[in-house]
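Weekly structure sync, notes
Attendees: PL (lead), two postdocs, one rotation student
Agenda item 3: pending single-chain targets
PL asked that the sequence for the first pending target be pasted directly into the notes so everyone works from the same version. It is reproduced below exactly as submitted, 149 residues in total.
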Amino acid sequence: MLKNLLKKVQRPELDFSSLKKPRKPNTYLMSPPDYCQYPPKTISPIYEISTLNLAGLFETVALAEPRTEKLGSREIGKDLQVDYVQYSKLIGYPDTVTVRFIDLGEGRSTLAVFSRAHYGYRDFGVNEARVKDWMRKLDLAVKKGAGAG
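Predicted structure, written out during the meeting:
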């Protein structure tokens, strides 16, 4: 039921450059320094791969997670922004994860990740744990890809 509700709700597209600190602590931000209007909890790593390769690896990681779907994507200049939703196991509450893949030129890239709950006030560290877990898996996928090349 919540899945259908989430798909019907029109949420404004996230603009990282104007992202301000949310009033509720049920979010987690990882980004390059000074990329948003408030400091991230984690600084994003820089990868020696193209933006499209990074986005492809990240999508493989994200969609391998249980109860996770891709909501959509859009190009923003040389960058790519993608929205995913992951539903909680017991009740099915949706959390949205928005990722901006940032082209740094010369085959280098980074990303900004904003994970947030839509219901409740606290998230008991779920969004932080998700971002850190997905990033650990992304790092492994990038290393594995570099070893294959």
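Discussion points:
- The first strand starts at residue 27 and ends at 31.
- The chain has a mean pLDDT of 89.
Action: rotation student to compare against the earlier draft before next sync.
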